[in-house]
Amino acid sequence: MTRSPAKTSEALHKLLEVVLKLRSPGGCDWDRSRKAEDISAYLLDEVYEVIDAVHCGSPEALKEELGDVLFQIIFLAAMAEEKGKFSISDVITQITEKMIRRHPHVFGDKKVKDVAEIKANWEDIKKNVENKEEHRQFFDHVPRSLPSLRRAQKVTEKASRVGFDWNSLEEVLSKVDEEISELKIAMEKGQQREVHEEMGDLLLTLVNLCRFLKVDAEESLKSSLEKFISRFRYIEDKLKEVGKTLDGASFTEMDALWNESKKGKGE
Known about the structure:
Layout: H1 5-23, H2 29-33, H3 36-56, H4 59-82, H5 88-101, H6 104-107, H7 115-129, H8 148-160, H9 169-189, H10 192-212, H11 217-241, H12 251-264
Helix pairs in contact: 1-4, 3-4, 8-10, 9-10, 11-12
């Protein structure tokens, strides 16, 4: 497929016109009533739908979901422009300049050996060229709105880069055992607040274990969740074949079908 900057610019301009029309006095009352907080929530939902489209492997679905994300981005930029803060062209210009600046090995004469050096150079540019770390706390660049597993992995990765980390996988495994013991003690006490806290500590330690094993915690849990749903659908379908429902089946029946579904997957 041939790239056409002129055609892309024309399409982007048309979408911007649509957004501006929706926000105009003669536009849509619902769109005109939207606040930035509303759009940010929609944007987050749309990003998750993009991720689903990527995993399902459908070009048509991905095309549609990327369009939905782009619409929300332009909508937010249009709202900012209405208040005289910045325009969509400012957004595009700024990200273009940033990407050129952060890829001196592509757009300049910087020499790099491998991906690790590219990443290190990226961080160095953020800190020493763009002064991104100025007046910021250490974890400020990790968004609070990330899913907790992903945020936990990013936070612990960032801490490890300054030496705050275990020395070996064995130490992490030992910490997992320690946290399980502390959880059991809290359960024996019957103190729900302590159970809540210790459960969180255990989950955070498990995220660290994922990091040491080079496993993405969020993707790993997502995969297991999809596997759980798939097996449960198998149970539901098999029960329907004999005229039963989930509510009308015993645990023993469901457990037998669960194990049957695992055999069908070669597990």
